[in-house]
Amino acid sequence: MTGLSADAGATSGPAHKVKSTVSTVGGHEIGYPHGHVGHLNHEEEAALRGFKALLAEHGLYQAGPPPSHDDQTLVRFLRARRWVAQDAYKQFKDTEDWRKANNLDVLYDTIDVEAYEQSRRLYPQWTGRRDRRGIPLYLFEIRHLDSKSVSAYEKSAENTYSKAHVDGKTPPKLLRLFALYENLTRFAQPLCTQLPDRDHPTTPITLSTNIVDVTGVSLRQFWNLKAHMQAASTLATAHYPETLDRIFIIGAPYFFSTVWGWIKRWFDPITVSKIFILPAHEVKATLEEFIDPKNIPAAYGGELDFKFGQLPKQDPFIKERAEWANGYTDFPTGPLYWRPVEGDPSRLECLAVGSVNQVERRARVCTIPKSFPAEVKAEEPEVAAEDVEKTLTPGAGEPVPSTEAVAEINKAVQSLEIADKSEDASKISEKVAQVEAEAKAAPTTASA
């Protein structure tokens, strides 16, 4: 497929994808699901343990249960800092300080729903669909982000209602933008994580795939957006690391290859390395390589009737799994998030939050089955070797395992690794089956 190198022209022939240095082993890029929870190698597992210990030492992490931060969040910071725990700690601490200074949780919980909707209509929007890996697919049409709409947005942002008290260092227009990032990490990604119809259902979703349409964007508009896009990208990279995966740029104007050299400097190298600029004749084929046609918007050669500005057209599988509540039959506009259903750990509930006419809303939208993380039974107490024969003592008439059989069974049990977060259920099941098979195959003697 067509990619983009640091010096390649955007539309002047094939270019090579820039290798991301975010997660590498021996200089080779490791892509999803590698470097994600459930697919960590020994070095990455060790880095995660060390990172947790470092955070706990400084009062930034509590193991729980439940833990103060889930593993997938911590791993995002480690990937962003190439698995160097000390570097990840600095970025994590800066983010926690920033979130606290700007009351991000309160902002998201109480932001005016119409103000949130105004932001959503300007920025990348979830289509309600996923790519072939189960990662949420977003669409961004930059032409809507013109000077007039940005000016109106900035003015209204000054008066956005929420109960959050902020430090004044982050512009209100960007705080409203980050309410959308909160929606990504607290609604869209958790929802996609709970959908088991994907290749790696034991690996949580922490990324997003983006189609960025620059059709009709003039050179002047690009230039006018420079400061805004730089600021947004800088803060997003700092405080929401490793939430972007592939970015497909479509509709690049004739001058794009000329100006790409300075446009790419607006963004950090990691973001640039994930960008693919697609000539018109390659759009459909390339998108279909990564996204099922039924999930590609019709404007780009797919079958999905979705236009920028609309609410997500939810995947039928999502709607089938949901048990709707309070009259809802789809997800409403405004901030949403998931939490465990009280009294039923097997399900999660979606809450609609935010404020309408300065009155906070707290409405259950639906519940869905919880498939991640899989419930793991508590580890049984270890049985001393001398007690093994006692536990295997049969009743009258039952087969009596021989000494050799007892030894083989004990050896098999000792070789069984108790369910680990880094292993999926199928591997664990295989090991259990192996132990059972060895036990059945072991020689026996008859009891009296």
From TrEMBL:
Name of the protein in its database record: CRAL-TRIO domain-containing protein
**Which residue numbers delimit the CRAL-TRIO domain?**
115-308
Look up the domain of life of the source. Answer: Eukaryota
Q: Check the record and name the Gene3D superfamilies matching this protein.
A: CRAL-TRIO lipid binding domain, N-terminal domain of phosphatidylinositol transfer protein sec14p
- CDD domains membership: SEC14
InterPro entries named in the record:
CRAL-TRIO_dom, CRAL-TRIO_dom_sf, CRAL/TRIO_N_dom, CRAL/TRIO_N_dom_sf, PI/PC_transfer
One Pfam family, short name: CRAL_TRIO_N
Which portions of the sequence form the region Disordered?
1-20
